[in-house]
């Protein structure tokens, strides 16, 4: 078990912070430069989805659909039918939230090569409140046949994910958060769709594996580091892609650690933890504790306040780790 | 659009009759499915597949073909029948409609039948897809494009908000090579469109969204052909053709038993109720082909 080139300043107090959605904007722009077939669509949120980087340079390849997410999904399907590689973006609550059936039928059932960027996913959206906090998006995308679901942990990984999505053929959902979050990876950190990576390997043999996605990978790493100081060895796996799930890596971790904590800024019902539990209950039954939102809606507040309130803070991950080790 | 001479009209009438026969045969073999819409649209589909469309049934992937996007997927028996008679696949295969492993799925799925331009069934999504196709085509070819994107819609599905999102976008983008065809047959599953969700004034609605609107008799080949020709000649905006059709057209035991244009003045409340009951019974008779197949809403 080895970690890969992570940010050397990862454990510094002043670790650089960037919004994950910026990585989508940068990746889309880069993909647009590399491939003329890449086009972008947006539903009146070019700034906050960072689509504006692309739309300003390539206005002839950009479609502003107005606040019509349902139509946007099907327009993208039509463009893909003509050979384009459309990237559509809005807040995750509206896309893939509001336009789920259009994504299911006109994109996935139709097998169209469309990429969906869902910004403002998770409870850390903060003051906007529960209406805008998409904590169901992983559940509704991973259930659709053919859909790939990527959950980048930081802005740099989001850029790589967006570029990788442009290169692969098939529908992809890329989950993006709003607030600035710690940059854990570097340009050199490898990224591959469907491949999980160890982001923290303790000094001793692991007693628990923590599988995390999104910005909460940072909390998972901090929890593991604190646990290590207490003499509890925890390995952190950044899953990166929820679907297809890197079963090989997850089982490898379980065989080494024997217990799992899953960490996600999403409903526990239907989320990443559910996907991990499904794999493990079939192939390697293991005690699991789930960190995530427990079947309630969010509310207004500062991101960290909400992460703590809904039980996704560093202390909660540590508690869950101890609890699951005791269940072994 | 070449003018239709008498001989061609005769030919088309014969083809439309073949298409209708196939629709009835395939629905009877399937034991379920939609009857009224497919029969009502048989003339228009026949004209498109045998005169209007620039296409090659032996080469459905031909990049320069016109695109025919069926939005109201439930009327697919007429699409399948017209395609089979035009040579896309054997007419014999029509009898596999709705059967296990058939390429002719109950609602169209292009994975099974790749010659289809899209999969449809859930209503209201076709126009957006046509708009996306036309936008992509304009990015590649500008105004030099020689393709047309024909989107076939039902009048009932105009209840869907997505249709109007797409209509706004096409109007904004002035997509002249989008041509919508609305099957104005005045019925939807729960009854008459004007009772379920009034559509009128339909022409005004589309005009206010920036569309050129034509309104025609959907069973008159010359009228349909002329309207498509006019729509093709409009270069500053998208066009839509409101085609008035008779559900179940061509089936003598139901055709013209419906009163489509509201109740004439002077009818008392009891007469209105009686008429509505007769209308509903006639509709049910049509939808079950006289009790021989399951109704679409069972």
TrEMBL record, chain A:
InterPro entries: PDH/Transketolase, THDP-binding, Transketo_C/PFOR_II, Transketolase-like_Pyr-bd, Transketolase_C. Keywords: Thiamine pyrophosphate. SUPFAM superfamilies: Thiamin diphosphate-binding fold (THDP-binding), TK C-terminal domain-like. It comes from the Bacteria. Pfam families: Transket_pyr (PF02779), Transketolase_C (PF02780). Its cofactor is thiamine diphosphate. Belongs to the transketolase family. This is Transketolase. It comes from Candidatus Azambacteria bacterium RIFCSPLOWO2_01_FULL_46_25. The lineage of its organism: Bacteria, Candidatus Azamiibacteriota.
Automatic annotation (TrEMBL), chain B:
InterPro entries: THDP-binding, Transketolase_N. Residues 16-274 form the Transketolase N-terminal domain. This is Transketolase. The keyword Hydrolase does not apply. Signal peptide: none annotated. Belongs to the transketolase family. Gene3D superfamilies: 3.40.50.970. It comes from Candidatus Azambacteria bacterium RIFCSPLOWO2_01_FULL_46_25. PANTHER family: TRANSKETOLASE N-TERMINAL SECTION-RELATED (PTHR47514). Its cofactor is thiamine diphosphate. Keywords: Thiamine pyrophosphate. SUPFAM superfamilies: Thiamin diphosphate-binding fold (THDP-binding).
């Amino acid at each position: 078990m080895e970690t890969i080139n992570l940010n050397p300043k990862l454990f510094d107090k002043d670790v650089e912070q960037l919004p994950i959605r910026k990585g989508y904007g940068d990746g889309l722009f880069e993909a647009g430069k590399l491939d003329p077939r890449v086009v972008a669509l947006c539903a009146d949120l070019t700034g906050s989805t960072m689509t504006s980087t692309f739309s300003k340079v390539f206005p002839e390849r950009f479609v502003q659909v107005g606040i019509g997410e349902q139509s946007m999904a099907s327009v993208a399907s039509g463009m893909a039918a003509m050979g384009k590689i459309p990237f559509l973006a809005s807040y995750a609550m509206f896309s893939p939230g509001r336009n789920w059936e259009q994504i299911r039928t006109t994109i996935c059932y139709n097998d169209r090569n469309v990429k969906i960027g869902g910004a403002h996913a998770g409870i850390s959206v903060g003051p906007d409140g529960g209406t805008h906090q998409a904590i169901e998006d992983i559940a509704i995308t991973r259930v659709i046949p053919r859909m790939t679901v990527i959950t980048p942990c930081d802005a740099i990984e989001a850029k790589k994910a967006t570029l990788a999505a442009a290169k692969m053929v098939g529908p992809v959902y890329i989950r993006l958060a709003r607030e600035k979050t710690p940059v854990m990876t570097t340009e050199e950190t490898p990224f591959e769709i469907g491949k999980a990576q160890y982001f923290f390997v303790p000094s001793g043999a692991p007693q628990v594996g923590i599988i995390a996605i999104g910005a909460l990978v940072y909390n998972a790493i901090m929890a593991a580091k604190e646990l290590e100081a207490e003499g509890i060895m925890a390995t952190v796996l950044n899953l990166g892609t929820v679907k297809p799930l890197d079963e090989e890596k997850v089982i490898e971790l379980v065989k080494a650690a024997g217990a799992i904590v899953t960490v996600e800024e999403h409903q526990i019902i239907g989320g990443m933890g559910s996907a991990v539990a499904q794999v493990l209950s079939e192939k390697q039954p293991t005690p699991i504790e789930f960190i995530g939102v427990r079947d309630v809606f969010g509310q207004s507040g500062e991101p960290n306040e909400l992460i703590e309130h809904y039980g996704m803070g560093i202390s909660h991950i540590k508690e869950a780790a101890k609890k699951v080790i005791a269940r072994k | 659009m070449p003018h239709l001479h008498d001989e061609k009209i005769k030919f088309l009438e014969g083809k439309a009759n073949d298409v209708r026969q196939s629709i009835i045969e395939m629905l009877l073999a399937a034991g379920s499915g939609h009857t009224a819409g497919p029969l009502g649209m048989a003339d228009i589909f026949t004209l498109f597949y045998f005169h209007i469309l620039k296409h090659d049934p032996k080469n459905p992937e031909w990049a320069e073909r016109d695109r025919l996007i069926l939005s109201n997927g439930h009327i697919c028996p007429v699409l399948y029948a017209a395609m089979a008679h035009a040579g896309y696949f054997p007419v014999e295969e029509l009898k596999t409609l709705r059967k296990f492993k058939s390429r002719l799925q109950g609602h169209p799925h292009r994975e099974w039948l790749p010659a289809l331009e899209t999969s449809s069934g859930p209503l209201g999504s076709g126009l957006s897809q046509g708009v996306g196709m036309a936008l992509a085509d304009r990015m590649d070819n500008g105004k030099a494009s020689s393709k047309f994107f024909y989107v076939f819609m039902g009048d009932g599905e105009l209840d869907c908000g997505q249709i109007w999102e797409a209509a706004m976008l096409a109007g904004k983008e002035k997509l002249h090579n989008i041509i919508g065809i609305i099957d104005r047959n005045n019925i939807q599953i729960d009854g008459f469109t004007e009772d379920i969700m009034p559509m009128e004034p339909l022409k005004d609605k589309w005009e206010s969204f920036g569309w050129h609107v034509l309104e025609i008799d959907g069973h008159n080949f010359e009228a349909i052909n002329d309207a498509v020709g006019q729509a093709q000649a409009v270069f500053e905006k998208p066009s839509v053709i409101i085609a008035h059709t008779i559900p179940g057209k061509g089936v003598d035991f139901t055709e013209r038993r419906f009163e489509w244009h509201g109740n004439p003045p002077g009818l008392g409340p009891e007469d209105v109720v009686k008429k509505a009951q007769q209308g509903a019974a006639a509709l049910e008779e049509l939808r079950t082909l006289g009790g021989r197949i399951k109704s679409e809403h069972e």
